[in-house]
UniProtKB/TrEMBL annotation:
Pfam families: HATPase_c (PF02518), HisKA_7TM (PF16927). It comes from Marinomonas primoryensis. One of its GO terms (molecular function) is phosphorelay sensor kinase activity. The keyword Phosphoprotein applies. It is an enzyme of class 2 (transferase). It catalyses: ATP + protein L-histidine = ADP + protein N-phospho-L-histidine. Keywords: Kinase, Membrane, Phosphoprotein, Transferase, Transmembrane, Transmembrane helix. This is histidine kinase. It comes from the Bacteria. The chain crosses the membrane at residues 6-26, 38-59, 65-86, 98-119, 139-161, 173-193, 199-221, 233-253, 268-285.
């Protein structure tokens, strides 16, 4: 192969690559102005390379005219550079003005081209094996200078974008500068003959790589499919290099091992035949791969569209039942057989009977896993489909699990917010109710004694309900001090209305604890009032309060001989708000008691294992945690 033929082939390949790249960019770019301008650059470069081919074929005048249109190449590139850079952080008024002036740059480039044609700025000389090669005449200096200046301006815009941008766009610009240096190195040899340098333009033989590398540098961070294409292209290029090395070895060794006929074949022919085989392999690879897949896995039609449909429909599930229903429908429709899906974590267990196709999905320590049940007699294609679907379904289970957990957390947050608002409303209403109650009490002062007594009884009940609402809905402020327990209980009993219920106090004088005496007094008032309400109707109503020391805590038992508490109210239900069997009760008494005890760091429970029918046991720390922290006041919600 002669050097002129190699040059002609390189220009032809560059031209074909330019048109293909331009078509691909226009198809992918659609409304992206920067990629459309880059497609224009690719078209002009393809035309410029084709001009050399035309020149080599003897059409000198047409070839020279085409090559003299080279100012349009950097103009398209300038248009692309401005659009590519002028966005985000690099958007500038100067670039907007340059973009508005782009039509004038195109017009100036057309004028330079027309002037070059009219003044004869180019000519052809025989330098490559008597074939014609393009050179600039003296009148072509302006054409060459204008082309270089536009190229410098375009790269200056890119330099500004590299300075202002960050991330992928900055990396794209850096890659373009590297490719630009490569293109400058290749194009330098183009002007050798114009300056009287009789060197063969070897660098231009690699000109097809410039355009491909430039496009790849621009779009690799914007169109992901380009990276996959580049991955395949590099693989085939590597295979071509391996073939070249193998042919070189064959050419040297074949003659020495007796294969003289093979040794006499020109190396370029061996390389060409091998290249054709490589191209044929690349063309038939995908069809053969699909054919073999259908032979090995008959009935398995899996592609990106199917997987995308599966993924989108599984994401629509709002609960586990709906997810199972969608999964069974999708997989059964794909393999045209009924399939059962079971989720062990939601209580739908499946027993393998060896006849029904099933997909069992379960939660393990490392995440969601799946197991195929009853698929032993299924075809390889069906099993492959089930395995792919099982993997996708397991992923969907994890997504749904996290989605439901987030929904529960959000509902809990809204419930807590609602309770806070309800508490504020209750406190406001309780405060507002005291004014009409006071007015009613004053108005009843002049009423008959029996009526006045009845009104005062009901007013005391209403006042108690209001007090309970204020305590339960508001925050607790603890004023910690050393409190003698026996004296506190005795003072409460002297003011309590026991209504004939006898009371016994077994508390040592030495027992003291660090607590809020006002809040602790409220605890005993509620417990005593509750005990009297249920014990007063007994023939011999009794109440007993006793306390003892246990390590660093004080254990207090409040006994009464009232009726035993129903089993339905045992445990935590007994201390819930609005839970009561007492006529006229608010249902807040024991809830308030537990809240105050919890605020002190203590514990309260009902015990049914004592000698008394009803026993409430309080365990309070002798030394308050707040006093150990050096504080005598603590707010708790």
């Amino acid at each position: 192969m002669t050097l002129s033929l190699m040059f002609e082939v390189a220009m032809l390949v560059s031209s074909v690559c330019g048109f293909l790249v331009a078509a691909w960019l226009l198809w992918r770019a659609r409304k992206q102005g920067d990629l459309q301008a880059l497609a224009g650059f690719a078209i002009m470069m393809a035309i410029w390379c084709f001009g050399h081919v035309v020149l080599f074929q003897g059409y000198e005048k047409m070839g020279v005219y085409i090559i003299l249109a080279n100012p349009l190449m950097p103009t398209f590139f300038l248009h692309f550079a401005i659009r590519f850079v002028n966005s985000g952080a690099a958007k500038e008024v100067m670039l907007d003005r340059l973009l508005q002036a782009i039509p004038w740059f195109y017009a100036a480039s057309v004028v330079v081209v027309l002037q070059s044609w009219w003044m004869g700025a180019g000519d052809a000389i025989g330098t490559l094996d008597t074939r014609s090669f393009f050179i600039f005449t003296d009148a072509g200096t302006w054409n060459l200078a204008y082309t270089v200046l536009i190229g410098i301006l375009a790269h200056g815009v890119l330099l500004f974008g590299w300075y202002r941008h960050s991330g992928n766009k900055k990396r794209s610009i850096l890659a373009m500068f590297g490719v630009g240096a490569w293109g400058l190195l290749l194009a330098t040899s183009f002007v050798f003959p114009s300056f009287g340098i009789s060197w063969f333009p070897y660098p231009m033989l690699l000109l097809p790589t410039y355009l491909l590398l430039l496009v790849y540098a621009v779009v690799r961070y914007q169109i992901l499919s380009v990276n996959a294409f580049a991955n395949r292209a590099l693989l085939w290029v590597a295979m071509m290099l391996v073939i070249l090395c193998l042919i070189a070895v064959i050419s040297v060794v074949s003659g020495r091992v007796g294969l003289q006929a093979l040794a006499d074949v020109p190396s370029w022919q061996l390389w060409l035949y091998s290249l054709l085989m490589l191209v044929m392999s690349a063309l038939i690879y995908q069809p053969l791969n699909r054919l073999i897949s259908r032979v090995i896995y008959p009935g398995a039609v899996l592609n990106e569209t199917v997987l995308e449909v599966w993924s989108s429909q599984l994401k629509e599930a709002q609960d586990w039942t709906q997810l199972i229903s969608i999964g069974e429908r999708l997989l059964s429709s794909q393999i045209r057989q009924n399939v059962d899906i079971s989720l062990d974590s939601v209580g739908k267990a499946y027993v393998d009977d060896g006849q029904t196709l099933a997909l069992s999905v379960f939660r393990s320590e490392s995440g969601w896993r799946f197991l195929l049940l009853g698929w032993n007699d299924a075809s390889p294609g069906m099993r492959l489909t089930a395995e792919v679907f099982g993997s996708l379904f397991s992923t969907s289970c994890g997504l749904l699990e996290r989605s439901l957990a987030l929904a529960v957390a959000e509902r809990k947050r809204l419930d807590e917010q609602h309770l806070v608002e309800l508490g504020s409303l209750s406190a406001a209403m309780a405060h507002e109710l005291r004014n009409p109650l006071n007015i009613i009490a004053m108005a009843a002062y002049d009423s008959p004694p029996e009526t006045r007594q009845h009104i005062q009884t009901q007013l005391k009940r209403a006042d108690r309900l209001v007090s309970d609402m204020l305590v339960y809905s508001g925050g607790l402020t603890l004023q910690i001090s050393t409190t003698p327990l026996r004296a506190l209980v005795k003072s409460i009993l002297t003011q309590a209305q026991l209504e004939g219920v006898s009371c016994e106090v077994n508390i040592a004088e030495s027992i003291e604890l660090e607590a809020d005496p006002q809040r602790l007094q409220q605890v005993f008032i509620n417990l005593i009032d509750n005990a009297v309400a249920f014990s007063r109707n007994q023939p011999d109503g009794k109440l007993c309060i006793e306390a003892s020391m246990n390590a660093d805590s004080v254990v207090i038992n409040v006994h009464n001989n009232g009726p035993e508490i129903d089993d339905s109210l045992q445990g935590e239900a007994l201390f819930q708000s609005f839970m009561t069997k007492r006529a006229g009760g608010s249902g807040l008494g024991l809830a308030i008691v537990r809240r105050i005890v919890d605020a002190h760091g203590g514990h309260i429970q009902h015990r049914a294992d004592t000698a008394w029918p009803v026993t409430f046991e309080l365990i309070l720390p002798q030394h308050s945690a707040y006093s150990r922290l050096g504080s005598t006041s603590h707010d708790t919600k």
